[in-house]
Amino acid sequence: MTVTELVSYEDALASYDPVMGLEVHVELGTRTKMFCGCSTSLGADPNTQTCPVCLGLPGSLPVVNATAVESAVRIGLALNCEIAQWCRFARKNYFYPDMPKNFQISQYDEPIAFDGYLDVQLEDGEVFRVGIERAHMEEDTGKSTHIGGATGRIHGAVHSLLDYNRAGIPLIEIVTKPITGAGERAPEVAKAYVAELRELIRALGVSEARMEMGQMRCDVNLSLRPHGTETFGTRSETKNVNSLRSVERATRFEIQRHAAVLGSGGTIVQETRHFHEDDGSTTSGRVKEEAEDYRYFPEPDLVPVAPAREWVEGLRAGLPELPRLRRNRLREEWGISEHEMQSVLNAGAIDLITATIDAGAPADQARKWWMGELARRANEQGTELSALPITPDRVARVCELVADGSLNDKLARQVIEGVLAGEGGPDEVVDKRGLKVVSDTGALSAAVDEAIAANGAIAEKIRGGKVAAAGALVGAVMKATRGQADAARVRELILEKLGVQG
Ligand SMILES: [Zn+2]
């Protein structure tokens, strides 16, 4: 099906209500794998972080990673879930080369956490509650690289390479309840949910949740039902969508595609689909397996997980402030609008600004430098703000030097340039580049005299009482001193020398 056969988004919504289900996989940032002691660090040579357990060699026995269980419980608590008193792992049986055991250890009907919710704030400030069905623990698979095909997919490839370094990395899969009632805002709700979940995961410190690195990936289930009906339609499942924008686009596309199929009297096939970043479309993957195809059974090599209640309550008491509440608190403390806060979030600047304020900078100054000069430089270099080689402490020091009059904005920008260039901290850059504001009368006097001499006509106007004309002479002095003169002091000197009152 091509894009031209889609019905318009408005027409789709005029006839149908979308129902979504979002399944998000998060790779936990534990030091070792889910069931063995192999390292999880990224970037190692292929197949160097493996052992008999994660390679599924006969006779090897898995042992549960305690930190992963703790992370799963904390995620469950932060999502307002019930925590299981007792639960087991299950074997999910299927054959695929990236899974050397031919089964994945997962959880089936006994998830560690279930029946919760996450409140999601939409761009206009409205809060939408997304129900959480379950959060369960499982292990990641290895990574296949298909060589020779045009698209990197297995079709057309001449051979495939397998790297088992990722096999056995702990995953948490978080599954929503069916999301209804979002209407035309369904794509926005889907995006906002994944964004909020990512913030939550980061606030818990259990994963960096970088979608572009596959540490967090979303499967988008979507179906339509005619307005006024209760029964859900057949759903499609778009797999491994790996950016917030793609989650929104995939949802939107599937709404239009489903409406087109249903509207022309066709039926939706229950299948998995691939999302294409280039044109925002999805294409058919494989016909979806039913749960019974996996022949789940309790994992016999692992003991059940039975978290002690006191331990769970201790973890609950230690949860951090939830991101949405923190954002609202900071927005009020900083005195900015929803829209301005949204810009801060989009720029990934909230923690940087907070740390700069903690280091002593006033809120408006901290926000001004990160969202202005530093955002501009990050943008120029095509990098994230957090990747710039400058710390919040150093930005706070720049703010302090501006506040005490040692630097003006122009000089401060040069200091930042120096810090980013690796010339040291702000004070070092000021010293090395000689960037202090000059307000000393002796040092400024000659430059002022020169400016007056070179601009006789303007000087006459000022003598005659047109004080506003002094701006031109201040500009001349600033230029002559390469922006280092204290502009207010220069103005005073000009008026003094020309014998007029400011
Ligand atoms: Zn291993």
Automatic annotation (TrEMBL):
GO terms for molecular function: asparaginyl-tRNA synthase (glutamine-hydrolyzing) activity; ATP binding; glutaminyl-tRNA synthase (glutamine-hydrolyzing) activity; transferase activity. It catalyses: L-aspartyl-tRNA(Asn) + L-glutamine + ATP + H2O = L-asparaginyl-tRNA(Asn) + L-glutamate + ADP + phosphate + 2 H(+); L-glutamyl-tRNA(Gln) + L-glutamine + ATP + H2O = L-glutaminyl-tRNA(Gln) + L-glutamate + ADP + phosphate + H(+). Keywords: ATP-binding, Ligase, Nucleotide-binding, Protein biosynthesis, Transferase. GO terms for biological process: glutaminyl-tRNAGln biosynthesis via transamidation; translation. Its EC number is 6.3.5.-. Residues 351-498 form the Asn/Gln amidotransferase domain. Gene3D superfamilies: 1.10.10.410. InterPro entries: Asn/Gln-tRNA_amidoTrfase_suB/E, Asn/Gln-tRNA_Trfase_suB/E_cat, Asn/Gln_amidotransferase, Asn/Gln_tRNA_amidoTrase-B-like, GatB, GatB_Yqey_C_2, Gln-tRNA_amidoTrfase_suB_CS, Gln_synth/guanido_kin_cat_dom. Belongs to the GatB/GatE family. GatB subfamily. Heterotrimer of A, B and C subunits. HAMAP family: GatB. This is Aspartyl/glutamyl-tRNA(Asn/Gln) amidotransferase subunit B. It comes from Streptomyces pini.
